[in-house]
Design brief:
Blueprint: H1 5-21, H2 34-43, E1 51-56, E2 64-70, E3 76-84, H3 92-112, E4 116-123, H4 124-132, E5 164-168, H5 178-187, E6 202-210, E7 221-228
Parallel strand pairs: 3-4
Antiparallel strand pairs: 1-2, 2-3, 4-7, 5-6, 6-7
Helix pairs in contact: 1-2, 3-5
């Protein structure tokens, strides 16, 4: 069974656009993305019984993962974490949550030897301004040129399909995200008490799909998916 990541990202972005158009934008949050993604996976003949939401994390105490698929023995086959790009995405609290997602996914990929994915979607303006290209000044609305990927999240992600990014999990002294690792190890505990989490030195993310971006012909909602390993 092969996932078409182009269709997968469209499942998320079209769903958000639909909710917006019928006046339910106030209901859109990361938890709402589970449903269009689950619907897409059922189209691949994955039974609903094999799609688990808020699945208990296999190695972390009292933590869950947004969505996993399991085989008929209950073993994880793949895992997903979801986020909505919005104003908060550029702030420290959300940076920490995304860092936590990447480490949670890595732990599943490592312990279960399965593919794990991080998906983030939002309006094109929010996706660019608060995630892909965080700049100190708001870009002029009449500019037809997209800003280059820049800012905090370029430490962890590339923004072209099939491009990879590898980063030191513990950060490098003086690096802006060094504190995220410290907060993770203070907050997250292993499920087996007395054992160590066995965190990696590095994480690699690969952009497996990203929506086309254009100021001249904008798409209302866009998103990207990265494999985490």
């Amino acid at each position: 069974m092969k996932i078409d990541f182009n269709r997968l990202i469209h499942s998320a972005t079209y769903y958000l656009c639909y909710q917006d158009r019928i006046g339910r934008d106030f209901m859109m949050d990361e938890s709402s993305l589970k449903y269009p993604i689950a619907d897409y996976l059922t189209s691949l003949e994955i039974p609903m019984s094999s799609i688990r939401l808020e699945f208990e994390h296999p190695t972390l105490f009292n933590r869950s993962i947004d969505l996993v698929t399991v085989d008929n023995t209950g073993k994880i086959e793949r895992a997903f974490e979801f986020k909505i790009a919005k104003l908060n995405t550029k702030y420290n609290s959300e940076k920490q949550r995304i860092f936590n997602d990447l480490l949670r996914l890595w732990l599943i990929a490592d312990s279960n030897n399965v593919p794990c994915y991080f998906l983030i979607a939002g309006t094109q303006v929010d996706f660019i301004q608060y995630f892909r290209s965080i700049v100190s000044q708001r870009p002029t609305t009449n500019s037809k040129d997209l800003p280059k990927p820049q800012g905090f999240y370029t430490e962890w992600f590339q923004f072209k399909k099939d491009e990879e990014k590898e980063f030191h999990v513990r950060g490098i002294p003086g690096n802006e995200y060094e504190k995220n690792y410290k907060e993770f190890i203070e907050t997250y505990k292993p499920k087996d008490r007395g054992s160590a989490l066995g965190l990696p030195e590095k994480i690699k993310t690969t952009c497996v799909e990203i929506s086309p971006l254009s100021r001249e012909f904008p798409t209302p909602y866009v998103g990207g998916i990265w494999k985490v390993e």
